[in-house]
What we know:
The protein is α+β, with helices and mostly antiparallel strands. It has helices at 3-35, 50-59, 66-72, 86-97, 148-163, 170-197; strands at residues 40-47, 77-83, 103-109, 122-132, 135-147. α5 (148-163) runs antiparallel to α6.
Amino acid sequence: MNIDDFDSVINKYILAKDKVEKELKIMMNNFIDKYNYNPIEHYKSRIKSKDSIINKLNKKNLDVTIENMVNNIRDIAGIRLVCSFLTDIYDIVSLISNIPDINIVERKDYISNPMENGYTSYHLIVSVPIEYGKIKEFINVEIQIRTVAQDFWASLNHKIQYKHEEKIPDNIKEEMYEYSLIINQLDKKMVNLNKVVNGGK
């Protein structure tokens, strides 16, 4: 993979990520002004490293080319929004759906349909227009939306996967799955508690 070509393509993803972040900030400021409530506890953004992109292409048994990178990796640019409550997640998805410059390409609701290992989150692949070298292009950005509890579980699971590169022991997988169920129940209880605190709203 030519380093100059790679850097040029990555610059497009940086522009796309920055544009999505800007739109999300405007969206949330409008929401806060209207409801006097911010559903987002914090957020992170990142661009995949070259090594990470190459590893992902290798796992997909694809040649390491710019074309394969662009066509087969949708999370080169990523933004993670972390919320307090499960209900916040769906509110945010609805808000993002109404941003004119953001086109939702794909939705994956891992809350209603958790992954086999217990992972829960809501993923969006969005496409945004950018101008690079006087050429208008549409670039994909992944947005992950999850609760604080889901983020804690996912962070721990990521560390476990990193430590056990070959295979995670079955007993640890089973324990992590059990914890994901506990976290799901906790999230639901917190939603109910929040309703009580806010007078049933």
